[in-house]
Amino acid sequence: MMRTVPQRGGWLEVICGPMFSGKSEELMRRLTRAEIAGQRIEILRPPRDTRHASDELITHSGRRMRARRIESLDQISRLDAAVLGLDEIQFFDPGIVEVIDERVSQGVRVICCGLDMDYRRQAWPVVATLLARAEFIDKLQSVCLGCGGPATISHRIDPSQAQQVQIGAQETYRALCRRCSDDEAAVNARPLAPT
Ligand SMILES: [Zn+2]
Question: How many angstroms does the Cα of residue 58 sit away from the middle of ligand 1?
Fold first, then answer.
């Protein structure tokens, strides 16, 4: 797709989709391109993301880049970078929206990636707002484990322990399409047959 980049400085890109759709890979790809062009980049992770060593971003496929875990939003306002990449954007505090706007107005290219929906198919409010404000949006899909079609849903395997903020890995979530997710929810809702 042809895209015209704003000539007068900053803009916002959002990469969204379900788990295992390669969002962080795509974030790294764009940041690596910027780095090759000699631009100063920073990768930021939310305070609650404790999956990785604090100074790295590691994707499910094992690719890694240096990243900074953000403890307060003020830190972002002070960073000296031409391109800011924010991973797991859904876990940042709502104030991140205004901080991003401010940085974009200062001429920074900001690239956010994260889940668009939780496992109940509710939009993450921060991500919904950023999608509305972004110049560029990419919605990625994974491959449905049920049928091989395009998956848009991060299906939670044990919904009885419901809690929106669970930073997941392969053992708790499956990428499913709408239809397979509905089917699986119906199976789980069925009472156990007497034995
Ligand atoms: Zn499916």
Answer: 27
- Tell which residue, 109, 87, 107, has the closest CA to residue 37: 109
Find the 21 Cα to ligand 1 centroid distance in Å: 14
Active site residue 88: yes
Is 50 exceeded by the pLDDT of residue 162? no
Backbone angles phi, psi at 127, to 5 degrees: -70, -40
Are the beta carbons of 144 and 177 closer than 8 angstroms?
A: yes
Residue with tokens 């000539």: 7
Q: How much is the pLDDT for 59?
A: 75
Question: How far is residue 181's CA from residue 25's CA, in Å, rounded to a whole number?
Answer: 25
Dump pLDDT digits (tens) for 108-117. Answer: 999 999 999 9
Tens of pLDDT, residue by residue over 24-35, are 999 999 999 999
Distance 174 CA to ligand 1 centre (A): 11
Distance 189 CA to ligand 1 centre (A): 18
List the catalytic residue out of 26, 42, 88, 184.
88
Are the C-beta atoms of 31 and 42 separated by less than 8 Å? Answer: no
| Domains parsed from the chain with CATH numbers | 11-140 (3.40.50.300)
Taken in order 169, 172, 178, 179, is the CA torsion positive or negative?
positive
